[in-house]
Write a structure and sequence with these properties.
335 residues, alpha/beta, TIM Barrel, eight-stranded parallel β-sheet, 17 helices, 8 strands, globular
Amino acid sequence: MSNAHPNLPLIDLHRHLDGSVRLQTILELGRQHNLPLPAWDLEGLRPHVQVAEIQPDIMEFIARFKWMVGVMVDYAAVERIAYENLLDAQTEGIDYIELRFSPAFMASAHALDPAEVCAAVAAGVQRGMAETGVRANLIGIISRHFGVEQGMAELKALLAHKQHFVALDLAGDEGRFPGSLFVEHFHLAREAGWHITVHAGEAAGAESIWQAVRDLGATRIGHGVRAMDDPALVEYLVEHRIGVEANLTSNVQTSTVPSYAAHPLKAQLEAGVLGTINSDDPGISAITLPYEYDVAAPQAGLSLEQIHQAQRNALELAFLPAAEKAELLQIKEAQ
């Protein structure tokens, strides 16, 4: 029996579409396009893509994306990967998912056009939604480590397909590329009517979260591990109902926290912060959202009631109109 509450929707607010590519798909696309894969069978490929041991930092973890992005040879491959994300979400029992991706990052290995990557992802997700009944929304990412100018070009690619996105995110090397470099980008995104969520407080401290909230307009924080370092920040997050998208296994694997037991999600929930449970990069972490609920959350010290509270928080924080949130809840309660 899953720790997820059966009468509440199962929601993943923080999953990277480009960190959620099937090993089998990497093999098939590798064969189809004669790519130099490091192995030609599932078990041989697995250690190159999935994390089996703790990585020294976030950038070592990000290096694992090489083989996922490496098979994004053309727009058909991109569409297939997006489509399979919806099939996998259905398999996991997810009712609503927000999939995020950086079009410039996905375009980088084979010199694709980032705007066309956006179109291909949207097509794949729409096909997947129609087939599975799983609801999904897309969040665009600016990859901060490509720099300010490239970030503006990436934003323009996303805005060219504005209707397919609900929010903008900032991800990548937080330590070397602070959010202060991207204030103008996020001003434009808010003007376009998008919600804002920002990776912050993962590789940098509480000041990174303050910056994301005050200067970038974030109403949700990706990871937010360092929020508890600053009691005034915790108070602010609670008062303004700014959510934290926690990723338990990923934070252990990237050495952001030393262990599940040391993860701050429990303390955040106890303080009244709207913490949620998410999967981050399941293709690299070799996990599912149910695993995070059933294995990771208890190891992080969460009680069953705290797990259910995190699930309720996810519904409140979802970038969905109130009517659609109510509908998701009604469907679950009727099941």
